[in-house]
Known about the structure:
- The protein has strands at about 1-5, 10-15, 30-35, 50, 60-65, 85-90.
- It is mainly β.
- The protein has a 3-stranded antiparallel beta sheet, with no helix packed on it. Strands 4-5-6 form a 3-stranded antiparallel beta sheet, with no helix packed on it.
Amino acid sequence: MGFSGSRGTEYIGAFYTGRLANGSLIDRPVLIQAGRHYFGSLYWGDYSYTSLDPVDGSFWTVQLYAEMLSPLDPCPPQTGCARWGTWVGKINK
Length: 93
């Protein structure tokens, strides 16, 4: 399962978790892309997908994370502007 997540000390990042082939659970969610900046908007979550690779049995996950604003951006995060990035990660079996 892939998802976006954060904590009080971390920006919104991309994670995955799941169950191993032997049935045991992954101890804690695995960070695949750390958030890079504050995200000041209510709009979130259009892109999230996890799929099995039929060739080698691995998984691919596509997740959002909070991206850094450009120094040239005319809208600072305090005004509600935000940037997000899309991360594609391979999860090996």
